[in-house]
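Attaching the record inline, Q. Sequence:
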Amino acid sequence: MNNIKLFSDSTCDLPKKLLDKLNISIIPLYVVFRDKTFKDGNDINVEGLYEKVDELDILPKTSAPSPIDFYNAFKPYIDKGDSIIYIGLSSKLSSTILNAKIIEDEFQDSDITIIDSKNLSAGIGLLLLKAYELIESGMDKENIVEEIKSLVSKVKTSFIVDDFDFLHKGGRCSSIQSLMGGLLKIKPILKVNDGNIILGQKPRGKKRKAIDLTLQNIYKNKDSIDLNRIIVGESMAIEDSLYIKEQLEKNMNFKEILLIEAGCVISSHCGKNTTGIYYIEK
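Structure, as predicted:
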């Protein structure tokens, strides 16, 4: 049986130490400030991103890895005869999956599978961790791919943004929602549905109220949640992540609560002080 090599892109937001430990390779997206381009997580970190936003008084643009980026990443493993599974950012939010599929077609005689997570950030990360566990269990590639694809619609992603400007200017939020959010002090709970970001509940007031509402929804649905793992993500909002972890430990029985920091591409669209919660339903 061929060795199975796992790939993702930088928007999976899993910590580098964990990715290295699990031998998951990352193909970075790009962050662009005017005429300067940076590889997400390689040439720029989140602190540097927000420093540049303040310094230049502009929001960054982001772009997908090119087909050449995928070719260069995959080829050494193809040459070794490895099988490849790539799990990437939702095709409805980026051309990343499309570019990966171009190279999948280029290597027609090789064993490459491209999986559209229809998600973002740790929503991708959850699928990667599950795929790793299945590889370690000795499952064959065909069944791993089938299992991961069956989980795509079961990954639940919710996040709370503190600043509408990043979503609005990044094209992820309509002008009406941006205006109303600012005027009415709404802290929206955004969700990922079939690969798209949609507006969920719209509590007014402090961000902590929106977090508590999100937690209450988890408690109500606890019987339908896979308790093996939940991920809490943040962009410069570690205190909120620690609060969520504490509440989950009190009220739920997750085997693992993983805290992560959002990378530069995700932070470019959600902005500072964003918090996300990610889990899989049964």
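The two ends are 30 Å apart (CA to CA). The CA atoms of residues 20 and 188 lie 34 Å apart.

More tomorrow.
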